[in-house]
Amino acid sequence: MKTSSKKATSINLLNFRTPQMKAFHLSWIAFFLCFFGWFGIAPLMAVVREELALSKSQIGNIIISSVAITIFARLAIGWLLDRIGPRITYTYLLILGAIPVMLIGFSNSYESFLVFRLMIGVIGAGFVVTQYHTSMMFAPNVVGTANATTAGWGNLGGGVTQMLMPLIFAGFVSIGFLDQEAWRLAMVVPGILMVICGFLYYRHTTDLPEGNLKDLKKEDFADKVEKKASKVSFATVSKDYRVWLLFLIYGACFGVELTINNIGAIYFHDFFELDLKTAGLIAGLFGLMNLFARSMGGFFGDKAGMNWGLKGRVWLLGAVLLAEGLSLVLFSQINILPFAIGSMIVFSLFVQMAEGATYAVVPFVNRKAIGTVSGIVGAGGNTGAVLAGFLFKSESLSYSDALAILGITVTLVSVFSFLIRFSKEDEQEASEELINSIAEKNMEVAPAYLM
């Protein structure tokens, strides 16, 4: 793997020394902890619901609030990344974002809980930082895999928190705390971990393979980077129809994942009459698929790009999204627990593959504004989750009906992926970059992973 001042052309998972791999590992760990804090309260909602006497409509509002603010946070942070870089951005996001995570325990009413849940949603913007940082560190032959893996392993936090938070809660109960105290204390744990990660990110990562933007200004390198980025305004990027199609598509995959993270445990708790720990463990299986599923989407996206160019990446995205929609409809109709678990795992596979395939396309839409494009597309995921939240808020719809409607919607959205087009110039530029990255590996395409 080339290291010094060039983008890496392979992913060496056991390498923790180069700037590219330090960014790779710390960015997925940071996003993992963001997810852990973001959805830490979700598997404990049955306890919170009982204590605060929350209605289904109020829980729906809480679900919406947890993802709504992230839309604006992702848009803002994408613009910020193009100007100050990922290192400082992630450091502040982790440390400041930990504050509402730890303070949500002070909630004593529906209104105060809603406000803290809204504030916690800002840390979901960590996804954009993770994608930006790996896009800056890895070459075209593996950038889709790098993006998908770091995001997927980060999203894994959404599954682990479903399993681990009920256990942390039970641990506090076992040493004598009441339920009302235990869920509050449990939320302090992810907050502390986020603060620690913030300091590690600042200390051990760089903005680019060449170094930090602040240091590189002395060599006039960063000035060129900033000048290049500033040529493309947010308004210019927002006029590209492909950005908004990807916004819609990402809402149909990541928006669905956020929704399941929010309602999964309470769905299995209520619909199948399971206890809190069992429901959390089952719901956590959905997120655990991120261990490899999102990486598969990025990996196959890279392979499609090598064989069929940028259009190959788009075709793969459309096919996987279609499979997601159909499998979600199937999951919504099953009322036998073992079959429901199996269909959920299949559905989860396609959800996360679609996410990885989306960000195998994103870096090629506008190379001069990767942060802004990533931010807009990332915000699409939260927009999808907000809209889905209204389905689950409705008193007239069961959760099964809402899931079926969501699956049909995803199936219809998959058609829009085939409207994404790249010019001959875009295809040629991507092809030249791929050839250059292959040349750096002695004219041999390296495997995506090296052990």
What would your notes on this structure say?
The protein is mostly helical and 451 residues long. 74% of the residues lie in helices and 1% in strands. α1 runs parallel beside α4 and α3 packs parallel to α5 (110-120). The protein has a two-stranded parallel sheet with strand order 1-2.
Summarize the topology:
Layout lengths: L10 E2 L6 H20 L6 H8 L3 H29 L1 H18 L6 H11 L5 H12 L5 H32 L4 H8 L1 H17 L8 H4 L4 H10 L3 H5 L2 H31 L4 H13 L4 H16 L1 H23 L4 H22 L11 H24 L5 H15 L10 H16 L9 E2 L1
Parallel strand pairs: 1-2
Helix pairs in contact: 1-4, 1-6, 1-7, 1-9, 3-4, 3-5, 3-6, 3-18, 4-5, 4-6, 4-9, 6-7, 6-18, 7-8, 7-14, 7-15, 7-17, 13-14, 13-17, 13-18, 13-19, 14-17, 15-16, 15-17, 16-17, 16-19
Gist of the model:
By secondary structure, the chain is mostly helical. The protein has helices at 19-38, 45-52, 56-84, 86-103, 110-120, 126-137, 143-174, 179-186, 188-204, 213-216, 221-230, 234-238, 241-271, 276-288, 293-308, 310-332, 337-358, 370-393, 399-413, 424-439, and strands at 11-12, 449-450. The N and C termini lie close together (12 Å).
Spatial arrangement of strands, main beta sheet: 1-2
Which CATH class applies here? Mainly Alpha
Mean pLDDT: 89
Radius of gyration: 21 Å
Q: Give the name of the CATH superfamily.
A: MFS general substrate transporter like domains
CATH-assigned fold name: Growth Hormone, Chain: A
Through-space gap between termini: 12 Å
- Structural class, by secondary structure, is mainly alpha
- Multimerization status: single chain
Q: What is the CATH architecture annotation?
A: Up-down Bundle
Helical stretch tally: 20
Keywords: Cell membrane, Membrane, Nitrate assimilation, Transmembrane, Transmembrane helix, Transport
Domain Major facilitator superfamily (MFS) profile: 23-425
Protein name: Nitrate/nitrite transporter
Membrane topology: Multi-pass membrane protein
